Amino acid sequence: MHDISAAITTRFRVAATGCIIGLLVVAVAPWLLDTYLTNILIRTLFLATVVMTVDILWGSVGILTFGQSAFFGIGAYACGLIFTHYGFGPGWALAGLALGIGVGAVVAAATGWLAFFHGSLPLYASIITLALPIVLTQVIFSGGNFTGSSSGLSGFPTYYWDLRIWFWTAGTFLVLTTTAAWLLVRSDFGRVMVAIRENEERCAYLGIPVSRIKIMLMIASAVIASAAGFGYAAFSNVVAPELASFQLGTEFLIWTALGGRGTLLGPIFAALGIDTMSSWLSGTMPFLWKLLIGVVFVAVIVLLPRGFAPLVGGLFRRILPVRTAGAPARVLVPDTRSRLGQGADDQKPPLRIEHLSRRYGSLSVLTDVTMTGRASHLLGIIGPNGAGKTTLMRCISDGSERSGGKVEINGAEIGRGAPQDIVALGVGRSFQNTNLFDTLTVADCLLLARYRIDGARLFRSSVGIALPEPALDILRATGLDQRLADETGNLSHGMKRGLELAMVLATEPSVLLLDEPTAGLTRPERMVIGKVLGRLTRDYGLCIVLIEHDLDFVREISDRVVVLHQGSILMEGTVDEVVSSELVRSVYAGHHVEAAQ
Q: Can you give the residue ranges of the ABC transporter domain (predicted)?
């Protein structure tokens, strides 16, 4: 525990040290720089703050956004419009800043709502954010004298402070927001962000509200970008459509890629260096400097796809090895508040399916499936390949999957709910193929599984991970409790299966959907899984729905068996009734004959 506390303290010490060093550099720099360079850097510091938000969205969460320039422009025009048409002074300045931040937040919320609905593809979000600056620029053009149209607004009253004061203002804003962002990406919530970037689908099936988190991050990034735009306009005394343009949004992405996406500091230094050099090159080589920047960008993408920051960081660590403030070592503890197995209503079956159907155009995959899953029972689903077993799992765990019929979880109809909404009703699901987060550690994955119950700390990392006893049993049986710091990509297949089951149990479901959980496992590993499943039904009262091709395994642990054939229920009964059925044997035999042909 002492080591863990020391690791957390070290992280905040590193953040505080970096912040102090940054503020000292900001305080001293204006005294050492000439007027021209100071003037350029003030603008660049505001732009670098926006680039930092692009790196949060693109580098940490995986949202390729072209829209940060629009929020920057909203903040800039809020300043220009208020100071030009309404008034100038401390009160008006605060009103303009509030207007820019408020409008930016509302536009970001609307953009996120359009871009991140359940089932949307990442490309769709990129298209929405690409259209945003284009639409905003057209609005500015059509504003006539009010917005200045294509000429923008200039000459409005502003604060004509000394350049040093403006430099300190812009630099302090960048340092403080970057420090907060550094703590954020290294916190529990930062692990959630990386998980969304790596495997959005798995996050949803762990109960993590992916769309809501993306919208929240877009709003927060828009607020910072709008504030930066307001400061930029107040200093420069000019606003123009270029500040909200698609071109500027693309430049933000280029600077992020050149600096090193996901490194936070890399894009900031890239923005400072490239924009400062561009200001100088545009005067000495007005027709070539953009071409040079483009050539450098292409070269970096081809030769250094991760940008300059990882390369520079690697060289620095070779020359001067340092111990970085990584995530603290975590410990597993029993969850004394666990309600695993207590969420079901004794008067209502945990799972009820009525007349369920699933069609893909003219192809009917499931037809009129009606079945009930009861507490303390393990329901085996068997059938030949293509019978619709996995499709049935999808229809139970995702409300948008089914074409007709009704699914109830603990008496509540799932409707068209997204997977995270159905997890909240009490459904946990494992996948036919292991579906994890390869670059995250075992401890990170378990922490993600507890998001719906315990949440995630924004600027700190949790020390203990509270898990229900069955999840701890699986971790101990597979040896994962000794490998919490290992990345999941380095685990064996059996360990990955065990981790996925432990993660599902960590969500504390009352209905557990398992799609071939023993596929690829050795016999001892299958025995461990079988004992755990038996205990889950016997001691915790879970309703387990199991898809499995190993009929011996099904016979050992199932209470009832449902046979699916060509999307319909062929037979339902006890294990002995189904296994001894001539009809079931003929179906399997016919399937094998067809497969052989």
A: 351-591
